[in-house]
Fold this sequence. Notes:
- By secondary structure, this protein is of the alpha+beta class.
- The chain has one domain: Sortase, Chain: A.
- It is 24% helix and 30% strand.
- Strands 1-2-3-4-7-8-6-5 form an eight-stranded mixed barrel.
- The chain is elongated.
- It starts with a helix and ends with a strand.
Amino acid sequence: MSRVTKKKRRTGYLVLLSLSISIILLGIWLSSSNAYKFLKGYWLYKTEQASGESFMIPSENNENAVTSKNTLYPKRPKKGEMIGNLTIPKLEADLPIYHGTDEDELEKGVGHFAGSVLPGEKDNSVLSGHRDTVFRELGKVGKGDLLVVSTSAGQFTYKIRKVRIVDADDRTVIVPKPRATLTVTTCYPFDFIGDAPERYILIADLIERKEM
Length: 212
């Protein structure tokens, strides 16, 4: 075998080895970072499109951001409009929900992220509130507890499946879900002074619906 042939084979081997290592490292990165969650969310989104449903989260301020074949709400709410109440039985709390999560809405109660579906609809409905007002005791609520949302469409009972604490800029909170889900978020730690660096997240599944 000539020296040139050996050199070509050695080069080809090094290229394949480098490619294999790159693929392995990419797999480790995807499985140990939020990138996996983002890709999973995108896959769910494409799956929903294929099944005839549609979910978009391009902008909080876009009133037409969510399009869906759900018929619970023939008329979508306007930003700033009160859309219902969130009842937290464990805290004996009954809190008003407003469409939007700007400061105007959060000063009055719980805000509904306008880029998510409305409570009771299939997919991920996201609610937010300040830790020092409406959600000051939310840390006492956890896995197995109930969250009840009442709107013009009916009463929807969710059971908390998971509690997460994530970075403030973690966008996996708003990814689409394959079933009716309620995601409740507030700043964390609860006793932090200033802009809190993390978020306390409750993820709940719809277990009962009483439509109007």
